[in-house]
């Protein structure tokens, strides 16, 4: 009964979380009728149509994470689980063309159970030992009521007048006391064993999951990172894995123990007194039902409270990270009000939750004590009529309390399991996400034969997250080896997009980009970005660590000599040496704050250390003052010498000396030539020059 209620509750919970879709069967029918016109009646057991197999497989696999839960609930839940999952989504996924966006979901094809098993199997020894220890512990627990009953009977015997004289108190109680002491010691040992073994296995699994998820993030395409908020990705890496780990450990230890204990105690209750068991059996389901109802509404409140807490954190994060903007707009009162509103809401919900939990626990106490009273009341009568002895009454009481405790811990576990399974599914989803581009596969051009000839041939491109908007509409551009080509044009024309394509952050939808005649798609992206292309942008990003570590980021195995030479060529050596700790100066949050120009020069040194054949400069000097710009421009001149360079510029004054200037408009290259040629042409470039001259 309890298990049935548990499973019902579980299904309801999953429904609420939209893991189960109540209309899924209907939806399947509709989807299939509309899309395949093959299925009249959907009967899972008889369908043999090819399309349905993968769907069923997906449905099953996406529910395997719920499997752990099923064990502790019941077979009824298995039915629910097999019918779960938004099947409409599955059908649509079969049909949708393979956009990058759906890449993650497509991986529902990946066998979840096998995947999770891969993690479990590595920890099979500690896990099996933990299970054995938990079972032994539960068996010990079941013996305790009986042993307590023996003790009571012995005490009872001693208090009877005929035994009072001449009986040795200590001798009489020796056996039951020793029995109890050894049971308590064994119980402590098994508890120690399974908790430490589970902790060992759980921590190893969590650590491996974290490493795998982080690796997955590092290997994802740029568009994956475009589409997901940084905070959400970090959340999966931290709190989701934490939730999954805690619930895994708790469900396995506590769930196993409580379930075994419940069954064991029911058996011992029944063997002690079938009549009293009947009294208990009528009250417990009622208690569980009331508990489940209150528990469900508490969980709803708790979910809401979590959401508000997350909103408050996000707001605080945003404001602290963008403090300068808040200050610049004098919007401190506004932000304070916003934050106060969110936290007050969260506070109220948590207060309601507190009232609910208090009422729940109060009611539980009354109910549990009522049961004890009821059992004593009915049991006393049975003792009086000599159907049972006082010892049996005692063991009955202890057993029934054990059942209540196990059931209440199972009901708490149930919530934990739902949270853990959801968190685990979220973690697996991203670990399984397959990038379109594998970062190290494809050809490499030997360094000595690499010329650096880049050619765009009728390149069309749309960002995967905006498939309706064509950003590049047939770009043609020839960048000869060791030449400097500047891209200019109005904002939004697609200049930065061209640079992203050269770095292979994205691939063109049609047309081709070649390096020395080889399509970029055939080249190893890791080789391309790692040693062939250097990129310097407007806002250089420095990592926490020393200046030397930041320069070395360009080539981690570079000797110190090369690091310093790169810094010298980038006009950075002198200011670095002026710091008391020189190259060992820590930059970033807790270190020295560097000026924009200094950061830029360190970034140039970093690019220079890489010694790339192709250099991309995305408005590298636009954020600097005149003096910094002179120093940076001077450094850039060193870096550009002897390399193919693509400059993306807004300020036309910086690109006058470029070998070729290409003007972009609305996703196309519309003018190509030198500064003088384009000026004479009297087209867009000439207009832009006039516009800028007027502004200056
Ligand atoms: N990650 C992205 N996802 C979706 N659309 C994007 C993305 N980046 C740019 N776009 C869109 O592509 C178009 C071209 O942007 P791009 O940044 O290439 O232009 P730009 O010429 O470099 O502009 P600016 O000089 O202002 O930097 C714009 O309409 C922009 O909204």
CATH architecture of the domain at 447-695: 3-Layer(aba) Sandwich
Dominant shape = elongated
**End-to-end distance, in Å?**
82 Å
The CATH fourth-level homologous superfamily of the domain at 447-695: P-loop containing nucleotide triphosphate hydrolases
Average predicted confidence as pLDDT: 75
Give the percentage of residues in beta strands. Answer: 5-15%
Report the count of strand segments. 12
List segments where confidence is low: pLDDT < 50 over at least 5 consecutive residues.
Answer: 1-110
- This entry's quaternary arrangement is single chain
What is the third-level CATH name, the topology of the domain at 447-695? Rossmann fold
Backbone CA Rg:
35 Å
Main β-sheet description:
6 strands, mixed
Strand order in the sheet with the most strands: 6-9-10-3-11-12
**What molecules are bound to this protein?**
adenosine-5'-triphosphate
CATH class of the domain at 447-695: Alpha Beta
Q: Which structural class fits the helix and strand makeup?
A: alpha/beta
Query: Helix count, per DSSP?
Result: 26
Helix coverage percent of residues?
55-70%
In short:
The protein is of the alpha/beta class and 696 residues long. It contains 26 helices and twelve strands. Strands 6-9-10-3-11-12 form a six-stranded mixed beta sheet, sandwiched between helices. It has a four-stranded antiparallel beta sheet with strand order 2-1-4-5, covered by helices on one side. A two-stranded antiparallel ribbon has the order 7-8.
């Amino acid at each position: 009964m309890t298990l049935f209620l548990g499973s019902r509750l579980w299904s309801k919970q999953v429904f609420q979380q939209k893991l189960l879709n109540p209309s899924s069967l209907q939806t399947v029918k509709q989807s299939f009728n509309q899309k395949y016109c093959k299925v009249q009646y959907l009967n899972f057991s008889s369908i043999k149509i090819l399309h349905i197999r993968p769907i069923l497989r997906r449905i099953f696999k996406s529910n395997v994470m719920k499997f752990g839960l099923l064990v502790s609930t019941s077979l009824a839940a298995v039915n629910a689980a097999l019918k779960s999952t938004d099947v409409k989504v599955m059908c649509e996924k079969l049909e949708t063309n393979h956009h990058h966006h759906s890449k993650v979901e497509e991986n529902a094809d990946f066998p979840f159970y096998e995947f999770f098993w891969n993690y479990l199997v590595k920890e099979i020894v500690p896990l099996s030992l933990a299970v054995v220890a938990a079972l032994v512990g539960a068996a010990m627990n079941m013996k305790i009521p009986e042993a307590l009953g023996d003790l009571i009977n012995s005490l009872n015997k001693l208090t009877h007048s005929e035994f009072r004289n001449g009986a040795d108190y200590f001798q009489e109680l020796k056996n039951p006391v020793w029995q109890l002491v050894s049971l308590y010691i064994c119980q402590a040992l098994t508890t120690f064993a399974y908790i430490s073994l589970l902790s060992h296995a759980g921590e190893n699994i969590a650590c491996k999951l974290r490493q795998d998820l982080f690796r997955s993030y590092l290997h994802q395409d740029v568009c994956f990172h475009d589409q997901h908020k940084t905070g959400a990705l970090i959340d999966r890496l931290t709190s989701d894995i934490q939730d999954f780990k805690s619930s895994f450990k708790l469900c396995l230890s506590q769930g196993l123990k409580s379930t075994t204990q419940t069954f064991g105690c029911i058996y011992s209750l029944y063997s002690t007194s079938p009549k009293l068991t009947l009294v208990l059996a009528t009250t417990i389901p009622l208690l569980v039902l009331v508990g489940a109802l209150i528990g469900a509404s508490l969980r709803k409140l708790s979910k809401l409270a979590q959401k508000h807490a997350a909103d408050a954190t996000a707001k605080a994060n945003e404001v602290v990270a963008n403090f300068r903007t808040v200050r610049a707009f004098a919007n401190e009162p506004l932000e304070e009000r916003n934050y106060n509103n969110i936290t007050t809401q969260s506070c109220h919900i948590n207060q309601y939750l507190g009232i609910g939990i208090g009422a729940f626990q109060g009611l539980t106490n009354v109910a549990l004590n009522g049961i004890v009273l009821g059992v004593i009341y009915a049991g006393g009568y049975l003792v009086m009529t000599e159907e049972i002895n006082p010892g049996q009454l005692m063991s009955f009481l202890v057993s029934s309390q054990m059942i209540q405790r196990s059931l209440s811990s199972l009901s708490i576990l149930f919530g934990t399991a739902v949270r853990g399974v959801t968190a685990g599914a979220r973690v697996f989803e991203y670990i399984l996400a397959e990038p379109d581009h594998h970062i190290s596969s494809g050809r490499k051009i030997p360094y000595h034969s690499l010329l650096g000839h880049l050619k765009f041939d009728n390149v069309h491109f749309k960002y995967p997250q905006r498939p309706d908007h064509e950003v590049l509409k047939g770009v043609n551009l020839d960048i000869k080896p060791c030449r400097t080509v500047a891209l200019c044009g109005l904002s939004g024309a697609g200049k930065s997009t061209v640079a992203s394509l050269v770095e292979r952050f994205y691939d063109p939808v049609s047309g081709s980009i070649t390096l020395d005649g080889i399509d970029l798609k055939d080249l190893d992206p890791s080789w391309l970005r790692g040693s062939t292309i250097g990129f310097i942008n407007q806002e250089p990003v420095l990592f926490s660590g020393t200046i030397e570590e930041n320069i070395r980021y360009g080539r981690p195995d570079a000797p110190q000599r090369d690091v310093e030479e790169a810094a010298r060529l980038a006009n950075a050596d002198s200011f670095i040496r002026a710091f008391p700790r020189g190259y060992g100066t820590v930059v970033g949050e807790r270190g020295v704050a560097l000026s924009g120009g200094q950061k830029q020069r360190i970034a140039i040194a970093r690019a220079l250390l890489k010694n790339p054949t192709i250099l991309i400069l995305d408005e590298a000097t636009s954020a600097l003052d005149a003096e910094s710009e002179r120093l940076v421009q001077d450094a850039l001149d060193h870096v550009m010498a002897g390399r193919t360079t693509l400059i993306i510029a807004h300020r036309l004054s910086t690109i006058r000396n470029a070998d070729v200037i290409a003007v972009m408009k609305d996703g196309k290259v519309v003018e190509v030539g030198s500064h003088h040629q384009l000026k004479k042409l009297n087209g867009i470039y000439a207009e832009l020059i006039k516009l800028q001259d007027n502004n200056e």
